[in-house]
């Protein structure tokens, strides 16, 4: 039965592997949340394994450096795996590298996708009109109406290139408000009938590949902690894992964005939503976590 818990100590005896989302769960983009270090240290003292699974288009090594700048040392978690890692894994093992030139949509060069493609000896074009493959790493976070991408979408509709995405998130909630993520663009493309291969949560690909790194851990004793119903919690369901929805920093990432879109009305941003507010946000959602927790603490 779904239930609210006050801290992770209430469920720590039930799990050996704790998988954390990063943005919105460990930090807000500027600083770590208050009890992250203590929680990770306490879990380690209990012989628990801590791992990080992110929809970032950056590779894990880049994200680890970002976390180090936020004063989260890498010795407090076992592994970190991202949507970027997952894409390049499939690029090197599955995808046809001889399928023509690539165009990388990476607003403000958030990731190193373009450089990594070149290192893999692939042809990268600065103009999508020359490309046979489109890789979406990041978009203009302020462009919630996707007005900057009309020409790209028109081109894809007419020529049907191979389209890949390294971040299925549609929105992120920050102190600035709601910001756009690549999933917003790919969702629009799919509505137009385009095929987009997405890497990241909630795909079974990223969970399956990540869990292969923990073969000594039972799925029944593994739990996913995240702030997104559509990616973290749905992804955990797809992988047959228990889950914890972290709801306290902001309204659940897509509980607000997704629900607001569904009813076509804006919902208020709450800096510290009450339990009743959270219940209201997710009342109509079919995606339910195993547990609810206001913030990561133990």
Topology at a glance:
Blueprint: E1 3-4, E2 17-20, H1 36-45, E3 49-54, H2 60-69, E4 79-82, H3 83-93, E5 102-106, H4 113-119, E6 124-125, E7 133-138, H5 150-159, E8 162-165, E9 171-174, E10 177-180, H6 182-191, E11 196-198, H7 204-211, E12 222-226, H8 229-238, E13 242-246, H9 253-263, H10 275-282, E14 291-293
Helix and strand succession?
Answer: EEHEHEHEHEEHEEEHEHEHEHHE
Globular, elongated, flat, extended or rod-shaped: what is the shape? globular
Number of DSSP strand runs: 14
Helix content: 25-40%
Question: Mind telling me the C-alpha Rg?
Answer: 19 Å
Determine the strand fraction and express it as a percent band. 15-25%
- Summed up, the helix count is 10
Measured between the Cα atoms of the first and last residue, the distance is: 21 Å
Largest sheet: number of strands, sense, barrel closure: 7 strands, parallel
What order do the strands of the largest sheet run in, or round the barrel if closed? 1-14-13-12-2-3-4
Kindly name the structural category. alpha/beta
Q: Please tell me the overall pLDDT.
A: 88
Low-confidence segments: 258-271
């Amino acid at each position: 039965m779904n239930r609210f818990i006050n801290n992770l100590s209430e469920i720590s005896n039930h799990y050996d592997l704790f998988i954390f989302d990063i943005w919105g769960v460990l930090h807000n983009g500027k600083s770590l949340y208050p009890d992250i270090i203590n929680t990770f240290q306490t879990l380690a003292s209990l012989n628990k394994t801590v791992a990080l699974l992110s929809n970032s288009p950056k590779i894990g090594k880049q994200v680890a450096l970002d976390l180090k700048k936020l004063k989260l040392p890498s010795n407090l978690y076992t592994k970190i795996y991202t949507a970027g890692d997952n894409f390049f894994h499939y690029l090197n093992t599955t995808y046809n590298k001889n399928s023509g030139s690539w165009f990388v949509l990476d607003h403000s060069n958030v990731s190193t996708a373009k450089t990594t493609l070149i290192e893999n000896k692939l042809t990268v074009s600065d103009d999508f009109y020359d490309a046979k493959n489109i890789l979406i790493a990041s978009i203009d976070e302020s462009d919630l109406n996707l007005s900057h991408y009309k020409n790209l979408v028109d081109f894809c509709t007419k020529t049907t290139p191979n389209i890949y995405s390294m971040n299925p998130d549609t929105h992120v909630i920050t102190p600035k408000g709601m910001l756009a993520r690549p999933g917003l663009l790919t969702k629009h493309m799919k509505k137009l009938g385009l095929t987009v291969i997405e890497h990241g949560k909630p795909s079974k690909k990223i969970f399956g590949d990540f869990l292969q790194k923990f073969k000594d851990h039972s799925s029944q004793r593994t739990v996913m902690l995240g702030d997104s119903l559509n990616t973290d919690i749905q992804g955990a369901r797809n992988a047959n894992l228990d889950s914890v929805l972290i709801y306290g920093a902001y309204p659940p990432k897509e509980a607000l964005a997704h629900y607001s879109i569904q009813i076509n009305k804006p919902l208020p941003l709450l800096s510290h939503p009450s339990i009743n507010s959270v219940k209201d946000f997710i009342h109509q959602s079919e995606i339910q976590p195993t547990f609810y927790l206001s913030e990561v603490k133990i």
